[in-house]
Design goal:
2 strands; two-stranded antiparallel sheet; mainly alpha
Length: 105
């Protein structure tokens, strides 16, 4: 495990860079976490996907994989890859402070 400071708050991350405790996350961290993922301009569309990831995790206990994300969020797979070039489900989950989605390598 490693620690990282986002928006002035220290959080714990696992070896892959996912929050170990999603309760440590808050929306003020989005821009900094996105920057770590190579996304230097966070748009409303990014935030929409991040909020969706959080909602799905809170409702179901697991973040959606890329196919489920595209199917349920209203954002196409093509657009997801444009928004999150490093792998949409994993990047969006990291930015949302939730664990890696099941089925992601």
């Amino acid at each position: 495990m490693t620690t990282r400071t986002y928006a002035g708050r220290e959080v714990e991350l696992n070896a892959e860079g996912f929050f170990t405790d999603p309760r440590q996350w808050n929306e003020d961290m989005v821009d900094e976490i996105a920057g770590d993922q190579g996304i230097h301009e966070v748009t409303d569309r990014h935030r929409e996907v991040v909020k969706f990831m959080r909602h799905e995790y809170e409702e179901k206990g697991d973040a959606p994989n890329v196919r489920a994300l595209a199917k349920s969020s209203g954002v196409s797979i093509k657009e997801l890859y444009q928004l999150f070039p490093g792998g949409p489900a994993k990047s969006a989950a990291k930015i949302a402070g939730v664990p890696k989605p099941s089925g992601c390598i």
